[in-house]
């Protein structure tokens, strides 16, 4: 909620419900100063906690599946960490777009959650051979796009899941940074494409930020993407939040309440 604005600020004013993603560090606070240019108004019908849970993760899902690779109905795609914050939003959205979703997760409990959110095929990464299963599911063809936020542990496996000319979207490092590699591997594995995108680039202009946020709020209001917040913590427990996230103990988005 906006408390006050500077003299030259237009577009937002005291009492407006607003949200933002990224921006300068300092979000673990009860109130803060922010440039108005990064704020988006939260529309009616979207609760404060829902907005908090989806601004970064929902806009990330939007650019990944609507812009980095515009997923088409009937395509089969692989999404790692499918029961994660970005993952659960992306799986539901992909399903609504008419895609077949293969998701990886770290446990049976997360597999159940991923299936309930649109994953057609779930691979348990801690005990199954991901590339082998993807080839089985796709009749040996591989997928046109892999969305990989796990990074170090899955990078080479992800390349092996792609069909020729496929695209690896490496958008995170949950398991550590990808080890430097010889780009010749992209030719050997089928003239593959690789991108390492970030939300900041995709929302760098005001027009892109507004269009991205609007699409996220639209799919929520239309019920295509449902956001269940399973983990809410007091802000004072921020350290525990980080330990649980790092320990792979969380499902979906986490919200901290000041
Ligand atoms: N590039 C961008 O624009 C952008 C924007 C937002 C977020 N991100 C990145 O996207 C990723 C997902 O973000 P999120 O907030 O939605 O997190 P998250 O998916 O809720 O949590 C990370 C998940 O990664 C999986 N994982 C696999 N190996 C892991 C390991 N060694 N250590 C920890 N986790 C591991 C775990 O799921 P399983 O146990 O099921 O494997 C874990 O729950 C993060 O890496 C984040 O930095 C990137």
Automatic annotation (TrEMBL):
Task: Please name the SUPFAM superfamilies in this protein's record.
Answer: GroES-like, NAD(P)-binding Rossmann-fold domains
Q: Which Gene3D superfamilies match?
A: Medium-chain alcohol dehydrogenases, catalytic domain, NAD(P)-binding Rossmann-like Domain
Task: Please list the residue ranges annotated as the Enoyl reductase (ER) domain.
Answer: 2-256
Which cellular component terms (GO) are annotated to the entry? Answer: cytosol
Answer yes or no on keyword ATP-binding.
no
The highest taxon in the source lineage is: Bacteria
Alphabetically, the GO molecular function entries are: mRNA 3'-UTR AU-rich region binding; NADPH binding; quinone reductase (NADPH) activity; zinc ion binding
What CDD domains would the database entry show? Answer: QOR2 (cd05286)
Q: Which Pfam families match?
A: ADH_zinc_N (PF00107)
Protein name in UniProt: Quinone oxidoreductase
């Amino acid at each position: 909620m906006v408390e006050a604005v500077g003299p030259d600020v237009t577009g937002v004013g005291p009492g407006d419900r607003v949200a933002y993603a990224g921006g300068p560090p300092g979000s673990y606070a009860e109130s803060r100063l922010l440039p108005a240019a990064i704020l988006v108004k939260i529309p009616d019908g979207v609760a404060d906690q829902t907005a908090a849970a989806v601004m970064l993760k929902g806009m990330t899902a939007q650019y990944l599946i609507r812009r980095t690779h515009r997923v088409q109905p009937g395509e089969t795609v692989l999404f790692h960490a499918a029961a994660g914050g970005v993952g659960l939003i992306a799986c539901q959205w992909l399903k609504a777009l008419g895609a077949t979703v293969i998701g990886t997760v770290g446990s049976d409990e997360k597999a159940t959650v991923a299936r309930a959110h649109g994953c057609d095929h779930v691979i348990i990464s801690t005990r199954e051979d991901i590339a082998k299963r993807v080839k089985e599911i796709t009749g040996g063809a591989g997928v046109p796009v892999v969305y990989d936020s796990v990074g170090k542990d899955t990078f080479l496996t992800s390349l092996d899941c792609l069909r020729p000319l496929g695209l690896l979207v490496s958008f995170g490092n949950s398991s550590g940074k990808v080890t430097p590699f010889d780009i010749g591997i992209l030719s050997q594995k089928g003239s593959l494409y690789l991108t390492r995108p970030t939300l900041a680039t995709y929302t760098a202009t005001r027009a892109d930020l507004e269009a991205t946020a609007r699409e996220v709020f639209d799919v929520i209001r239309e019920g295509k993407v449902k956001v269940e917040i399973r983990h809410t913590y007091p802000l004072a427990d921020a350290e525990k939040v980080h330990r649980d996230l790092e320990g792979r103990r969380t499902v979906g988005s986490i919200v901290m309440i000041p």
